[in-house]
Structures are given as C-alpha cells and as structure tokens.
Design goal:
The complex is a heterotrimer. Chain A is of the alpha/beta class. Chain A has 14 helices and 13 strands. Chain A has two domains: 116 residues, Alpha-Beta Complex (Aspartate Aminotransferase, domain 1), CATH 3.90.1150.10; 259 residues, 3-Layer(aba) Sandwich (Aspartate Aminotransferase, domain 2). In chain B, the strands form two sheets. In chain B, strands 1-2-3-9-8-5 form a six-stranded antiparallel sheet. In chain B, strands 4-6-7 form a three-stranded antiparallel sheet. The chains are: A alpha/beta, B alpha+beta, C alpha/beta.
Amino acid sequence: MRYLPLTDADRAEMLDRIGIESVDEIFSDVPAKARLDGLLDLPLRKSEMEVERQLSALSNRNIAASQAPFFVGAGAYRRHIPASVDHLIQRSEYLTGYTPYQPEISQGTLQVLFEFQTQVALLTGMGVANASMYDGSTACAEAVLMACRITRRSKVILSGNLHPHYAECAHTLTRCTNIETRSNLARPGGLDDIINAIGEDTSAVVVQNPDVFGQAHDLTPIADAAHAKGAILIAVFTEAVSMGLMKTPGAMGADIVVGEGQSIGVGLQFGGPYVGLFACRNDRNYVRNMPGRLAGETVDADGRRSFVLTLSTREQHIRRDRATSNICTNSGLMALAWTIHMTLLGDTGLRTMAQLSHERACELANRLSSLGGVELVTDTFFNEFTLRLPGNAAEMVQALADRGVLGGVPASRLYPGKGLDDLLLVAATETNTQSDIIAYEMALKEVL
Amino acid sequence: MSTRYTKDHEWIRIEGEEGVVGISAHAAEQLGDVVFVELPELGKTVAQGDELAVVESVKAASEVYAPVSGEVIAVNNALEDEPARVNESPDAEGWFVKIRITDVGQLDGLMDDVAYADYTK
Amino acid sequence: MAMNNQGRPSAPVHTSDPGAYEETFSGSKGLDQAEPLIFERKTYGKTGVDFEVSTGTVTRLGTLVREGGLGLPGLSEPEAMRHYVRLSRKNYAIDLGLYPLGSCTMKHNPRLNEKLARLPGFADVHPLQPQSTVQGAYALIGELAHWLMTLTNMPAVAMSPKAGAHGELCGMMAIRAALDARAEHHRRRVLAPESAHGTNPATAVQCGFSCDEIPANQRGRVDMEAFKAKLGADVAAIMLTNPNTCGLFEGDIREIADLMHEAGGYFYCDGANFNAISGRVRPGDLGVDAMHFNLHKTYSTPHGGGGPGSGPTVLSEALAPYAPLPFLVREGESWRMVEDQAAAEAVNADPFGRMTAFHGNMGMFVRAMSYMLSHGADGLKQASEDAVLNANYVLARLKHVMTPSFEGLCMHEALFDDRFLKDTGVTTLDFAKAMIDEGYHPMTMYFPLVVHGAMLIEPTESESRESVDRFCDTLEALALAAKAGETERFTAAPRFAPVRRLDETKAARQPVLRWTPPAADAHAAEQPPSGG
C-alpha cells in the first residue's frame, strides 16, 4: 500500500518490542460481538491509475461551468482565479499544517490570517474581522447569535429578500435557543418593510445586499432605524466582489457584516469548501462576542513583531459549555486562497473585475428583457438580476440546459410553493464573453 | 473593618452593610496574567455562590462567585482597561465589585485571614 | 603556466565564533527571510491580475457606487509569489516531519486527492445547476455515503456538515428533534465525560441542553457507577468519544449504549478518533445513534492550516428521519437532491432544518473518496492497525523515561503526564517547545484535562519505523536532559524557530487584530481606510 511505510518485518519487530503477539491484542477492549474478523464488503485497494479512471468517469458526467455559457449565481459565482493562487495554496507548508496553535512554527499562516482579517475589514468598511467561518450561511447564523449576546435581546428580523438558505440556517441554529427569528415575505425587485418591523425588543435585523434577487439597496435608513431602537444591523452579502464597485456596508451603517467569500479565490466547488467572512465594529463588546478564531499582533521574547491566535477564551476548547460558538475548524486554506487572490487584485483589480461583471450583467439584462414577454424585475443591481418569464422558470432552465446553456436559478428552487414560479435569477461575471451572452439570448428566444 | 475569604478564593472586605469583593493574591498568582474581567451589571442581585464575574487569563476562564448574597452597587470599571491590576494589586486596586449584603450572618461561614492562609498552605 | 589569479578558498577558513554578528542588516537570517505585511509595501494602485478592457460605465447602481478606494494593496504576480512563498517557510507541516498532535490525526495527504478534487466536473460545477447536469457529482456523494455507512454499519448519513463540530451539532439537533417528536421536552441533560473535547459541551448547550460531566475511573475510562447514577428521566443523551481522548477504548461502550437506550436517551459518538478503528470496528455494532466523521482527520483531506474540514454524520434508524436538508435520494439510475420541506415530507422525512447554504464540502468529499478507493477495505483496516501499532510502539519505547498516564496498551495515541518532569523545573510547555528546536511539532499539550500536564502523542500510520525511532530517540534524550538538570535547554526554547516564545498576555490585553496605517503614513493609500 503506497501510503503505508511499515513493512511486515517492521510490524513484527514492533509487536515484539511492545510485547504482544498480534495487533489484535490492542483491540482486546472492543466487545467481542463488535470485533470484525474479516474485511468489510467494500472494494480492495486500487492504484492511482484505477482511482483516477473511476473518479474521472464521474467527473465527466457533469457539465462544468467552463463547458457552457454559464450564468448561475444565487450565492456562488464563477470567477477567474489566477493560476498562482492554486499553486500557492498547494505548498506543503500551507496545505499540510494544522491550526497555528504553536505560533513559533506557524508565523506564515498567522501573518496570512492577520493580513486576511485586515483585507476583510477594509473590503467591508468595518473595524475588525475574524479569521474566517465555514461559509456565508453559517457566518450569518453565527452573527444572529452574536447580536443577541450583545443586545441581550432575543428577537431577530430576517429580511424576506435574504437568501432563503441563509434564513433557514439561522432558523435552524436558533431553534433550540430562546432566540426567535422571524422572516418577512420576499419582495422581488423591492425590499420588504423592515423598518416598521423593528421594535424596542428587536435584537437585530438581517438584510442582504445586493439581495437574493440581485436588487441593490442603500442600507443607511435601515441602519438608522435599527440604531434608534437599540438594535443591530447585520448586513449580509453573497457576492464579495460587489463591494469592488459599491459603497461598503460599513459606510452604510452596518454593525456586523457577514457573507460568502467564495467568489474571490475559492471557485465553485459544487457548494464547498467556501469561506465565510465575518466583520464587525471595533468595539470591545463586539470583539469579545465574536465567534471563530482571531489572529493578533504581539512580540516575541526578543521583541520581534509576531502573530498569535488570541482572545481564545471565547472558544470551545477553553470555554466549553459557555463558548460563544461550538466552532473548532474554520476555513483556513480557503481564507488563504481568498487573501492571495485579493492581494493580486488590490483595489485596482477588484474594481475592474467588479466593473466588468456589472457591464456584462447590464448588457445581458438589456438583451434578455427585450425579448417578448420577458420582464426585468430588478432595476438596481450589481451582477445579478431577476427576470419574470412568460411561464415556468424551472422548466425553461431545464430547456436551456438541454440546449447547452446554464441560464440561472429559478426562484422556485429557493422559494418553493411561494408563487414565484415565473422568476429566474441570472448572474454574470467577468468570465462571460460576448458570445456567451449572445448564445444565451438565442437559446432563451427558442425556449420562450 | 475585616476581610473574609471563601474556599473558592474570593475575599470580601466588610464595610458596614456593604462589602468589597475581589480575588486573593493566591488565586491571582495561580491564574497567571489576567487579560480580561467580565463584570456584572449594576443592580444585579446575587445569591451566595452565584456567578458574579468571570476572570480570564490567556488560556483559562474562571468564574468568580458571590461570597455572600446581596446587590451589586458598584463595579471596578478600571479593570476593563487595566486587567493587570488583578495581578498587581489583588487586595486593593484589583477589586471587582461592591455588594450591599442582605444577610451578614453568611459572613460567619467564611474564613478569616489566618484560616485562609492556613487553607492555602 | 596560465594562471587564474582569482582563486578563492574552497574550504572554510574562518572558524571563530560569529556571535558578535548575530543580527543582520536586512532582518533576514539566510533562508529565514523577513517579510513585511502587504500593507507596509505601499503598493496601492498596482495589480497582479489583467482583465479585458472595460467601458467604465455604471448604469444600474445609481447612488450606490462607491467613490474612492478601499485601501487594499495590490502586488504583481512575482511580488505575490515571493510574499507567500517566504511566509510559507515559517510554517511546520506534515510534509516536513512527524506531527504528533494527539486527537488531530496529522497523517500524510496524498496528492492524488488534490489532483482529483480539481477535476472540472467536481471543482467547476455550481451547487444550484440543473440537477440533470450534475449527476456524476451526486453519484460521488452517494458513493462516499455508501462507504461511510458501510464502515459504521449505520443506515443513514447526513453529508452537509462542514466540519466535525458542525457534525456534532447535526447529530445533537437530530437527537433534539427526535425527543421533541416524542414530546419529551423534559429531557434536557446531556452526559459527557470530563475528558471530552470542548466542542461537546459547547454543542450540547447550543442545542438547548445542559451538560453534566461524568468522572473517569482509575483506568481512564468512564466510571460506570457514576454514569449509572446520573441516568434519569431528564437525560437526553450521552456524548462519548471512542477511542476516548486518553487514547483508550471504552470497553463498556455496549453497556453504556444499552443503559442509555433503556433510560430513553440517545448515544452520540464523537468520531474524532475513528482513525484507530476504521475498518476494524463498526460503531453501529456498538449501539451508536449518531457519529460525525472528521474527513480531514481520518480520511486525510488536508488540515490546510485550520480547515476546511468536513463532518458527515451517520444516524441510526431512530434519528435518520430528522436528517437536515438537503439530502440525496436515489431514483433508479439517477440521483435527486431533496432541497425543501415539502419534498422531504414526500419521501417521509422530517428534517430538523438546514445547516448550510448548499450540500456540504464537495471538495473534501472527492479527496476522501480518492483516499478510500486508494486504500480499499484492506488498506483502511491496515491503516488503523498501523496507527495503533505506531502509537503503542511509542508508548513502549518511552514508558521508561516518561510517565504514561494509564497502565496497559493504548489505541492510536499515547498519553503521558508531567510526573517525569517533577522537580526538574521543566514544564510540559517547556518540554514541548524544546521539541521545536529538535525539528518536531509538539504533541498535544494540557489536553485531556483529566491528567496533569498532559502530553498526547499520535504518530499516525504515515510514519515509517525509522521515523518513529528517530522521534523516540529525540524524546528520550530530551527527557534525560530534563532530569539531568539542563533546564535552560527547555525554558529558553525554542531557540531555533523563526521567532521565540510570544507575549500572549500582551496580545490578549491590548488586542491588535488588523493593520492600521501609522498616523504619519495615512496618505500612503489612495484613500485612507475609514474603519468601522
């Protein structure tokens, strides 16, 4: 077996040194009835070639984003990732290290995390950020818990235009606590009335921007209304690149900003691993109630600047049943990919990438909505918009796929049974070419 | 004025019906460098043995219990910015809260300084 | 003769002590190169990514367009490569040496897994593409699920949890849902050994339970009398790691499961240590109701410097109906992802909710599948056997110079405590830091909490005999040095790492969690960062 270095001779000598006859003796505490004598009913070991053949066959049965005009979004986006990103994250020293609990021999990862935290704070316009969460949806749910710890209130309002999967995650994580999360009804193309739902006992309001339908909003009035009642505004994003062109959530008054970092550095990966971004005001009470790991700056015994995981008394391995979260692992390698891509982009590249996405989306929206019976529902958007089709959107998406175009996500897949069956969510990015856009227009014309 | 100690290493300095609460020098040394102190809200009522505060070092978080029942009438806000006071001056500047004692009789169950010194030997 | 008059010495001539010049002008020390933060390079306005030309017009964002920059520095590709490669060299890694972190299972990460995870049909597909276009990806998830259920003899597995702790949450939420379905709202107490991972009590509390600790007996196992005494009508479940965090198999596990079931509660098994028994023992045969895997440990999807993990969670018949959305069902030759409540009810499921936006960490599934196919039923069994063999060999070789916490054999990790350091002036921490100077990552320290100054060593099956021997030689020499009074060797350690011990008190008392521009330097950025 190519991954197991011990030889039979080694094993025999080692057993001898341990003073036992057989490795079975080590398993003698296992109840007799539960000991497996033979092998499980699974295939035997395979060579690299065989494994590659088997998995390649499965891979080939899927249509990859690069193989078709591709306009699927709704929380994950296809973007160009420079080749150097994937090379760097495969360096052994990043790929095969553990969480940097021994700072003397983890300064590389720790400095990367410190830079990551700073970039996330700058991107969102916030004071501080943590070292990443599993993904945007779990970051959002954790933000709800954090807001309730800070305000010591327990009622949370979720915008109806928050990605329904994010809302479900928040409901699920809080269902066993005394926190009450209530979702408004969705309002495609507009925004549900959050301001009037805020009461004196509201802990937080959770608003996505641009929202799940793609509509972009000014969060300032919501922030003001929340603050007037002592509530927290949690701003959510599913497309981090949007902040390359738009005002930051911080500039619009958000207190906690969470979202999905996938579109920078990470790739589609069929849903994961992704990287959750989590930023908040630089306020002691906020920082102490943050979930997840934090890298901080300090000095070593010789006074050299160095970095270390800090404020870990918030975490489960110390605080146990009183931890701010049960999270142990974060998304270290994806945070690395994110920060490398962001470093390559810088302000300039990020803005260009965002600009191109917006232009492509605008052109696509114009072309598609000029087809007979198609209506553009969202008038203000970044790179994703919603169309009202003259028929069932899910069926048309399938018909488009049959013609080799991956045309978006039917709203009914996110809001089943909610009467949104004629709505289609469409996203464009810098990866879409002019011919992709025209191919989509032609295909949609055919299936209408 | 007298000071009493609990088996959990809190001290309470009695000033009439009121008591100032902190943790002992012995406890402060055991904890190592204190990096954060979480104090209760003013006006909170606690029963003897209830959690009163949390004191954190880099690698541990420890609860501080109320030595007697009462109402919190003052907290040492200076600890928020200078938690090191708990290490540097556990008996004086590193105090945590002031309590209005509801049952002074509970003090009889606590140790005096001689008994506490003996207890921590 | 034709003479080259530029001859240079070809052997060292200067052998005196270079101590006077310990510091360098650049801050670098040979291959250990100093590297500033990206923010300190003042490379604002630069970029390392070229794009097609854009028109620059924004037509659909109205007043929401941002004026000015964000203050994000950019580096060209050569600069970025150098930055991240230089930083990488300050990290320890499995590929550099034995990584004996107990409970973390730092085994070799096969590169075939990395290659296959990057196949476009897995890496470049969207979770919300039409289901007809991702049947191969679904089939892979289905195949991995089959392996996980077979390895555990369990009837169901929830694939979406993103990490071990997320899997714990999944299992405990399923338990909570099952109790709620039985209208047993009074069952709110969860038992867990005091040696449990911190995630166990944290998870229990997040699911609305309280946590009640069970003491260990002299043999490092659950104290059965104490356990029985804690059973009652308000008990919801027990959370138990097996092999436990002392590296020992809980021999009474079947009885624990039976007693818990008789008492009306469930048995959650923390699968963090499954690497000891994968292919040799099936948790379903032990009465387990739920168990998460840590695919990044047991099946070697890499740790990546702190994630991503992946925590599929197997469930018993009693809990299976409550598995979270989304989940896969097989319909003839094709697969369907059930994504909402109504669709779930149509297949007689009653999911407790949703744990993440999509359906789990596909990238980790591919790697785990590649690992499992490579090993096969025979290789997985052999891997577990080699893992426990290596750990027991370490125990056998070191028990004379270090102090094992418990008598007898161990499973996949060997637990020592600090009794052998008594009166040496050397602590567990010092000992661990001295290992850094010897070229090793320290073992897990001060965990589990049930022994004093714990040192938990897990060599894994990836180490050759030669490697384990060299490691044991080093630890033996260190233990003898500590006993011989070479205290400075330990208290001053590490001396040969990129940095020496850090001031963690300062980091926690005055947290600096991000770079901020020095006041005098605020104009360096096009637009100074505004902060929150």
